[in-house]
Design brief:
heterodimer, A: 378 residues, mainly beta, Porin, 16-stranded antiparallel beta barrel, two-stranded antiparallel ribbon, 20 strands, 55% strand, B: 91 residues, mainly alpha, 4 helices, elongated, Porin (chain A), Porin_dom_sf (chain A)
Chain lengths: 378, 91
């Protein structure tokens, strides 16, 4: 509760600062979204969240950005810090960032997940919480964009507090998920390791329409002094983006795709139910491909505000793990853009949770769902 | 079955990429020679719809320009030209 008062006080101050005449450099922005999910047997309100963002341009070279996420989940209000960092421009091609930031591991987590940017009301399988690969971290990063010939490239490298392996040894910390990597360890699972990672991307055309990115991430994940201390994680991602006005289609074509993979080195875990020892090849992956089309020259404002979108995504957790899973999902939808970042999404989504979905209690996900979702930025 | 599906999808993407690659090869200027308005139209639509110049004031565009330079790894030259264009066109 104290948190909420604090947030309201800070935001009131910011709005005041923003409204002051003259050259105020505070900017309070953010987004919110909410929706209705309809399944065969029930309808529920989902995904209600409010994300205030504030930007402060301290000087020509220094920018501060922070985002809070206030989410309503199962009747409870959760407040989380999405990011809070300082970016300092070192020179034309290098920016130093310090703090908690969204990680350039692929493109989705850093650039495409906000509800008013994501063309779908849901995230692709394996790209949300408990997904494959990291999404944010606390540390230091160097990044930038560099002209190359007629076109350009971008890079980033970072060192952050590392993730922690759930080795199944603590019965209070979901021992059935032994072998899973926890990217945002809190409390008891304090991270002792540092992770390093980075991404390079190439925009081969001078019109910047296409970007191909390659990301890597490496860390020790086992707790020191345990039999798991040498267990390592290597994750990588490949992302693709193509956005271009195509005149013979009278509209804009937008293609996004990403493949994430996670490889954890071999280890033996103890089954929490019968104390037997077991091991498995600890490789996970997820990927999605999305295609959307939005007309621009159809002569009618109504049609020009529509967008059609389709997405396929798949997730695979290791065979032999107690959290084994193999899922696929298809989603198709039609969006109506009220303005550049105010959208109503109507989506039909079919998830096949696979044979293991039932056991892990996620069986209900193998049903169809229709979403009506509203997202806007302010 | 999984592997099979993945191949199909990978194949479709490959085909599209090739087709679009050819489509995009049509003559275009080097980035360094482009005016701010063009850079705005080409870059600010890649992740989200491009905001119109009138959406924000000059000081706001300054901060947003920095924010997008960091987030999108745009080059310094691109951002400077785009912000200049936006603050001229928002009157």
């Amino acid at each position: 509760m104290r948190n909420i008062f604090l947030i309201i006080a800070v935001m009131a101050g910011l709005i005041y600062a923003q409204d002051k005449p003259g050259e105020s450099r505070f900017l309070l922005r953010g987004y919110a979204h909410s929706g209705l999910e309809m399944r065969e047997d029930a309808s529920t309100f989902v995904g209600g969240s409010f994300n205030p963002i504030f930007l402060w341009r301290q000087s020509q070279k220094l920018l501060f950005e922070a985002e809070l996420e206030i989410e309503v989940e199962g009747g409870e209000t959760n407040i989380g810090l999405e990011y809070a960092n300082m970016a300092y421009i070192l020179h034309s091609y290098a920016i130093l960032r310090l703090g908690k930031f969204l990680l350039p591991f692929g493109a989705f987590a850093e650039k495409l997940h906000p509800a008013w940017i994501n063309r779908m009301p849901t995230k692709p399988l394996g790209f949300g919480h408990d997904g494959v690969g990291p999404a944010r971290g606390l540390g230091v990063e160097l990044r930038g964009g560099i002209p190359v010939g007629v076109a350009k490239m971008s890079y980033s490298v970072y060192v952050i507090n590392g993730p922690v392996l759930n080795d199944g040894s603590d019965p209070t910390l979901e021992p059935e998920e032994a072998g899973k990597v926890n990217y945002e360890p809190t409390g008891e699972l304090e991270s002792e390791n540092k992770a390093i990672g980075g991404r390079v991307s190439l925009l081969p055309f001078s019109n910047s329409s296409m970007e191909i990115g390659l990301s890597g991430f490496y860390s020790n994940v086992g707790q020191k002094g345990t039999e798991y201390e040498d267990v390592t994680l290597f994750a990588y991602a490949l992302d693709f983006s193509f956005v271009k006005k195509v005149s013979f289609l009278s509209g804009v074509i937008d293609i996004k795709a990403q493949y994430n993979a996670e490889n954890v080195s071999d280890a033996y875990y103890t089954n929490y139910e019968d104390s037997s020892r077991y091991t498995f090849k600890n490789n996970s992956s997820s990927y999605y491909g999305q295609l959307s089309y939005r007309p621009v020259n159809l002569g009618s404002d109504f049609f020009n505000s529509l967008e059609i979108v389709g997405r396929y995504s798949a997730l695979s957790f290791p065979k032999g793990a107690l959290w084994e899973a193999d899922q696929t999902q298809v989603a198709v939808g039609i969006n109506y853009w009220i303005d550049w970042r105010n959208v109503i999404k109507l989506t039909y989504q079919v998830t096949d949770a696979g044979a293991h979905g039932e056991e892990s209690g996620e069986g209900q996900e193998s049903r169809d769902a229709v979403f009506i979702h509203w997202a806007f930025g302010f | 079955m999984k592997k099979y599906k993945f191949k199909i999808i990978a194949g479709i993407f490959l085909l599209m990429t090739v087709a679009l690659f050819i489509a995009s090869c049509a003559a275009s200027k080097p980035i360094a020679d482009k005016p701010g308005a063009l850079l705005w139209g080409e870059n600010c639509v890649r992740c989200h719809n491009a905001p119109s110049p009138s959406a924000f004031s000059d000081t706001q565009w300054e901060a947003i320009g920095k924010h997008m330079r960091v987030r999108a790894n745009l080059t310094e030259d691109e951002v400077n030209k785009i912000v200049e264009f936006l603050s001229m066109a928002n009157q």
